[in-house]
TrEMBL record:
Gene that this sequence comes from: nnrE
Name under which the protein is recorded: Bifunctional NAD(P)H-hydrate repair enzyme
Catalytic activities: (6S)-NADPHX + ADP = AMP + phosphate + NADPH + H(+); (6S)-NADHX + ADP = AMP + phosphate + NADH + H(+); (6R)-NADHX = (6S)-NADHX; (6R)-NADPHX = (6S)-NADPHX
This protein's record includes keyword 4Fe-4S: no
Biological source species: Nitrobacter hamburgensis (strain DSM 10229 / NCIMB 13809 / X14)
Function: Catalyzes the epimerization of the S- and R-forms of NAD(P)HX, a damaged form of NAD(P)H that is a result of enzymatic or heat-dependent hydration. This is a prerequisite for the S-specific NAD(P)H-hydrate dehydratase to allow the repair of both epimers of NAD(P)HX.
Length: 499
């Protein structure tokens, strides 16, 4: 499903109006959708609408009118004088025949529901003064809060808090989600998110051409790998995972197990001499091969059947890992660079990015967490410290020439071609040692099956989040590969694939 920035949403609005939908009709639909959600939340109790002076407040007036017509006890508090409302918002306020309370915090009372219609897409500066006091009072009131479009104070495009922001129980937005409904901290302030149809046709998307999508199965169903009935293990690809030395072999094994469970036909751990014993003693379905440094690695990669490679988990930081990465880039298998493979280039990121661009290989994925991202893209982050996560990852993909996947509760995947996805399905107990190692392996396993890199990254992130839910609280990294069959089974069911 597409995600629209507030600018793209304005464009949708303009295109819909140009195609014949009156602007006020869109506001009427929006207000009605808010009224529907409010009825579900408030029961029969009194409802207070906190309205701002723009069209978000206009939606609030329409909702108030609709709810009063349905028999609810409704009152409205308005941030400004009624006569300063303009356009559709003024029209909406005209339809409201009930009380309008002045902007007095004591007027909030004890409603069964507060409808937050202070600011939506038009928020363009930090919140101070009366609106700030109003937002703080709404948060302190204790009543459930229904936010119109966005929790007031949240920037719709970046998800940032502009000084202070409403904490909603539920948010009703219109036509499509905005980045703030998925990116933190915005998502935390939204509560449940409902997307309402307000009469804007999907046809407008042909003109807007949005490049940001929610990372959900509908988005990548077409790229999801399904083993062929007449296939064999070699047809499902062979992923190789580079192991660290004797003191750090577990990360590569976790990664390898993730690759195998994600469907690679074969998985090998490439092990330095000193770690051969540890790796062979702890692996069964995953194979182990001796690898003597970068020269040995280059020799192994001449076998083109080894079509996907993961370097980084437990690899160690330094010149040896840098040499392994440059070797893999030259050999051109589909490649995941994670953890130490990224940190090894912290002091010379340009060397990595040049090598990536020189290969012409488009199947390269970098999978940093925030710390690794900052190390690798520090120059860029220092120049634009206020960018949103979405913008930062997009810029990093452009800068590096690779797919960049920035982990966290709102993992963003971006491609140098401009596409990006945001995932919102990861539970917090995924933040546990080794969980990222499994993710890099899962993506390697998908690449081995021939899934294009951007899709492989998106599918890996989504399945990793679902595996987190499947294993539940108390999860440790070892659990993740073991619950993948259940996640895959549900995907097969959802896609209607026989098994
Ligand atoms: N774009 C669309 O397709 C639709 C938009 N609708 C509604 O319209 C909203 C956007 O309306 P507007 O563009 O009028 O914007 P808003 O109603 O979000 O707010 C704009 C007003 O707030 C002021 N303002 C901004 N930041 C402020 C701050 N920090 N402190 C004090 N005042 C501040 C602005 O100067 C302006 O007067 C959407 O969020 C949505 O609720 C709906 O009516 C349905 C259709
Ligand atoms: N608060 C959170 N909510 C959901 N997922 C999270 C959260 N914090 C981290 N994660 C996920 O947990 C994984 C941790 O990966 P990483 O930091 O690389 O750990 P490790 O190096 O120990 O494997 C990533 O997939 C990340 O997206
Ligand atoms: K709002």
């Amino acid at each position: 499903m597409e995600i629209l920035t507030t600018g793209e949403m304005e464009q949708a609005d303009r295109l819909a109006i140009a195609a014949g939908a009156p602007g006020f009709a869109l506001m009427l639909h929006a207000g009605q959708a808010v009224a529907d959600a409010a009825t579900d939340l408030a029961g029969q109790g009194p409802i207070l609408v906190a309205a701002g002076c723009g069209n978000n407040g206009g939606d609030g007036f329409v909702a108030a009118t609709e709810l009063a017509a349905r028999g609810h006890d409704v009152s409205v508090i308005l941030l400004c004088g009624r006569d300063s409302l303009k356009g559709d918002a003024a029209l909406a306020a005209k339809g409201w025949k009930g009380r309008v309370l002045p902007c007095d915090l004591s007027a909030l009372g004890s409603p069964a529901l507060i409808i937050d219609a202070l600011f939506g897409a038009g928020l363009n500066r930090p919140v101070t003064g009366d609106p700030q006091a109003m937002i703080e009072a709404i948060n302190a009131n204790g009543a459930p809060v229904l936010s119109v479009d966005l929790p007031s104070g949240i920037n719709g495009t970046t998800g940032a808090i502009m000084g202070v922001a409403v904490r909603a129980t539920e948010t009703v937005t219109f036509f499509r989600k905005k980045p703030a409904h998925l990116l933190l901290p915005g998502r935390i302030h939204c509560g449940r998110v409902r997307v309402a149809d307000i009469g804007i046709s999907d046809v407008v998307l042909d003109k807007i051409r949005p490049a940001t999508f929610e990372n959900i199965p509908d988005y990548w169903q077409g790229a999801f790998p399904v083993p062929r009935i007449d296939g064999h293990k070699y047809a499902r690809g062979h992923a190789v995972i580079v192991s660290g030395d004797l003191t750090s072999t577990g990360a590569a094994r976790l990664s390898a197990r993730g690759a195998l469970r994600a469907g690679a036909g074969l998985v090998s751990v490439l092990s330095p001499d000193d770690a051969l014993g540890a790796n062979t003693a702890s692996l069964t379905a995953v194979m182990v091969r001796r690898m003597n440094g970068a020269a040995g690695f280059a020799e192994i990669l001449t076998d083109r059947r080894l079509n996907a490679c993961v370097i980084g988990p437990g690899a160690g930081v330094g010149e040896e890992t840098r040499a392994l990465v440059l070797t893999a880039l030259a050999a051109k298998p589909a490649l995941v660079l994670d953890a130490d493979a990224l940190t090894s280039f912290a002091d010379l990121p340009a060397r990595l990015f040049e090598a990536i661009k020189e290969t012409g290989n488009t199947d390269i994925i970098l999978t940093p967490h925030e710390g690794e991202f900052r190390r690798l893209f520090s120059e860029m982050s220092n120049k634009h410290p206020l960018r949103s996560k979405l913008e930062r990852v997009r810029a990093a993909a452009g800068r590096s020439g690779a797919i960049v996947l920035l982990k966290g509760p709102d993992t963003v995947v971006a491609s140098p071609d401009g596409r990006a996805t945001i995932a919102a399905n990861a539970p917090p107990w995924l933040a546990t040692a080794g969980s990222g190692d499994v993710l890099s392996g899962m993506i390697g396993g998908l690449l081995a099956q021939g899934v294009p890199a951007f899709d492989a990254a998106c599918i890996g992130v989504w399945m990793h989040g679902e595996a987190g839910h499947e294993a539940g609280p108390g999860l440790i990294a070892e659990d993740l590969p073991e619950v993948l069959p259940a996640v895959l089974r549900r995907l097969y069911d959802r896609f209607g694939i026989d098994y």
